[in-house]
Each structure stands twice: as C-alpha cells, then as structure tokens.
C-alpha cells in the first residue's frame, strides 16, 4: 500500500462521512413533521415502488424526456458497479481487481461504456433542451437563479464524469495494447477504443498520466457529487424510492379529516356536554395543536419528504389548470418553497437551538394566499408527478390554517360558508325550497 | 317532458314503513341550479323507467360540506357531515346514488372516518348497473346515432376516484361516436369549478379555466360535450357560450343523454 492509497482512503472516509452527516440533517428535518401512518399495505407499496420508481412508469408518459431519463437512470445504477471496483483498487493499490472475471468482465465493461456514452448524449440533449429549447415549464418564474444553475450544474458534472470515465478506459485500452506494466489485458472497450486515433501516438508515461488523472478525477468527482446531492434537487435519485413507497394509497379525492376538529365538533354536538365545563388541563409542555398548517413543522413528515424528493421537473405545474391559465399558483413552487423553508428551519436549529423562532413561516413568507386560493383541488399535479409527490395536501393544509386560524378567505367564500351554515347550501336559497325542483316542470 | 314526476321522500316512505332500494342524494346544485335540476329530473325519470324503488331526503338533505372542506373550513365540513350522517343513519340508509361527483367523493371517502358508512354510486355507475342487469334497455340508433360526443371527466369522479369507464359505457350505448380530447381520463383538465372555485372569482391570470377546457373540447368538433357533474356542466356551458357555439354544440349530462335516447 503506497502513499496514494492512504490519500485515497482518507478522501474516501472524509467525503463518505460528510455525506452521512448531510443525510442525517435531512432526515432530522423530515422528522420535524407531524406523524402520519404509512406502515400499512406493504405489498401494494412495494409493487407501486417497483412500478413507479424502479420501473419509471410515469416518466415515459412523456416519451422523449422519459427515455433519455432512463438512459441516465440505468447508467447511474449500473455504472456504480464500476465504482465499486474503483474503490477497491483505490484502497488496495490493485488495478482492475475484477479482471479475473474474464469474459463476464468484458461484458460488464462493454455495457458500462455503452451506458456511459448514452448518459453523456442524454445529458447533452437535456442541456440543449433546457437552455435553448422553448419548454415552458423549464422557464417558469421559480426556475431562475439557483434552481436554473443547479439543473445545469448537474448535467455538466455528469458529462464531465462520463468523459473522465471514458478517457480513463481509452487510455487503459491503449496501455493494454502497448503491453505497459500493471495494465492487465482485460475488458472490452467498444466506445473508448474509438479514442485510439487521439491516444494511439502518445507515450506510455503520458498515457499513464491521462489514465491516472482521469481515474482520480472520476472517483473524487463522484464523491464530491455525492456531497452535492443534499444541497441540490438531485437528491431525488435517492429519495424517489422511499417517497413512492410511502405515497398516499387511498383515493386521490379523499382528503384527511382533521382529528382535532372532530374532537371539537363531537363536543359541540354532544347534548350531554356541559357548556360551562372548564377545558381539561393541557399536559405539561404540550403545544396547543393548530388547525391546519402555518409552517413546515405543522405538515406531516411525508409532505416534507416530498419536498426533498422534488427534482423540479415541473410536470405538475405544466398540467395545473390554474398555472396554465396564468395564475400565480405553481405546484412545483409549493414544493420548492416547502423545501427551502425546511432547510432554513433546520439551519436555525443548528445555529440557535430547537426553540428558536425567526418570525417567519411557510405560509405568507414563502407562499402567498393568492397562490393557494387559485387551486381547484383537481389532483392533476398529484397524478403527473413521476415520484408521487402530493402538493395538494400542503395547499389544503395551508388553506385550512388561513381560514380557521386567521379567518382569512376570499369574501365570496365567507358568503358561501355562511350560506352552508345557515341554509345547508353554498347559495342563499332557503332549505325549505330544496325539493321545489320536483314540482317544477 | 312536461308531466309531473313523482319524487318520493324518505320521510313519506319511512312513515309508510317502507325502505327504498337506493336513496337518491340530489346535492345542492341538483336541487337549486336551474340547469342542474334538469339533470336531476333525468335521473329520476331513469329510476322510474327501471322501476327502482328510490327516495330523496328533500328538505332534510343538506350540503355534504365538500366546498367548505376544500376551501379550508374543516369545522363546517365536519358539522355538515355529522348532521347528514345523523339523518342518514336515522333512516337506516345504506345505499345511495348521486348525480354530483363532489357529494359522491365526500360521502364515499370522507364520511366513513366520521362514522358514516354507506355504499354510494355515481349515477353513471348505477345506470350502467341497471343496463347490465337488464332493468334498463337503451334504444340505440335513435336521436344520437352518428353524433360526435366527447366526455369531459369530472376531477372528483375520474382522477379522484378512478371512475372513467362507466360514463363512457353509457355514451357507447347510444350508437354515437365517442371522441376523446387529448387531455382525457387521468389526464383530464379541470373545468375550473372544483376546490370551491365555483363560488368565487378566479385569481388574476390570462384566461378562465373553463375557456381553456371548452376550447379543447370544441377542438374535437363534438355535437355534444357530455359530462357527469353539474358544476362541470355549468362551466362548460358558459365556455361554449363564450365561443358563441351554443347552436352547434350542446353540453349534456350522461343521464340526460340516456333519458333522451329512451324518450323519457
């Protein structure tokens, strides 16, 4: 084991450790949400995860983007087998430790190469499509500054990583041809062998420089990219799976009934209840429960996991009737705001402790009433999401807080609610006229 | 079409010691909105034609609370739900049908958690059942033969509860040509009324949702835009008027199509 192996091990442990630390912060943030039971119907959940996350069933609804995405996704998963070899080689100073697999190794390396070039091409197409194409959802008002740069950065990093991977193989291939020491004859190189005209005339030492350089760039690049995920929308590559698994299984039309409201309503409807009775003493340290959600902690953990799973593709927004007709509401922005606010709350906890109040909230500071009131609750956004994110639950929970805690609602809704209360219909018709239609011709 | 139609109420039936096969939950729109009342009557005529023993709650019916809940007023929703459950359970009702997908969704999905457990069907499902059981025969080759009909999926029937086939199966019985819009079934575009939008002005934007949807519907050159929701009906009717196409394209509920096909 040489000095380079020690350097490699130190870098590996440091960056893997940093990643674990970042993930633990995200996990803690998600668990700031209220509890919701999603431990039921495990078989159905696994099947849904297999179909939607593993099988990408909702991605291919839009065929071009869907197929390109599958290239990158399969490439990412399969090429990671190669990363395993690179890590073992890096630790023990070996070279292509799996070469003993012989013909199977050729198949592996050959397919990695084909996937790598497909990933590279798909990323180039996506870059062009995103920056030069005129796809409305990629140019919405929430897709400026960081979200825009984040998207481009991810694509550029992936292009660089694949280029390094293919350069490494290309140089290795030529070194094998030239019979260089340590470079075992192994692997098939259907793509990188095309670099022969570029690499063929170089000296062995230059080639080793390229091969080693690309090797280090590739593996350190991957480790750094891993640590980029938690601050990026690209974290979806990890959370997509649990997020689909824990998604709502009941009919989309069904909204939860708030249990704290049920308690109040039961009390009001109970003829035995003593109207003058003092409310029961709250338990020590109990925080009075709000009706609806004002901030991220009032949402449940699956809403918060949704926020970290969102990769800002905007399919939700592109099918939202309010957004299509020029209203401010964008379900994608609801998810991005939830994530940004949650990250801020997490930072506050890190810096000022658990009970710090920064005077801000998801509702009002991030998401405005105008956005929330434009929602028709049609569930198109929920249906469109390739990883089963539910922006609608958040929208409705924020509406609940506005109406029940802040008495904030459009004036027409006040009349509607008054009518329902007084005459059992959203319009001002007397309840006694309800059967009049039967007498009319 | 102008004769008086008999609509038994639950109170009368209970007084006579009888129980209906199904309770027809009319809904607020079906009770008060002039256009929707026609849908209600079409449903009643179909129930009579198939000899279904039914009743309505009449003045004992009250809003399910759906618009209040979607607007965020969970209190009002649960108050309404509890009162309705008391009435329904008081009569021992187990089976319901309704012409409104919002009532359908609320009673089917949100009442059980508050103690109200019923079997409820959307009228398109119930009518499909009547046809399958041979209780109702549709006379094909009639008024709708060869007509182009497109179906606009109500959100709370389609995406909300995965009912896509029942209304379409009724249209197919008419010897009409069912033409689909690009955004149909699970990809259907909302009419703009859901989520209590029916009762308020839209937020500032560049277009009304119902205009966007009607434009798409008119794009498939239909003689009839069919739907299964009184609110969708209102929105699409207004949309057709917006394009001055009332003479070429009618907006009708699937129940009205069936009633008219059978000359009820």
Automatic annotation (TrEMBL), chain B:
Residues 22-108, 149-236 form the Cysteine-rich domain. This is (Fe-S)-binding protein. Keywords: 4Fe-4S, Iron, Iron-sulfur, Metal-binding, Oxidoreductase. Pfam families: CCG (PF02754). The keyword Electron transport does not apply. One of its GO terms (molecular function) is oxidoreductase activity. It comes from the Bacteria. The keyword Transmembrane helix does not apply. GO terms for cellular component: plasma membrane.
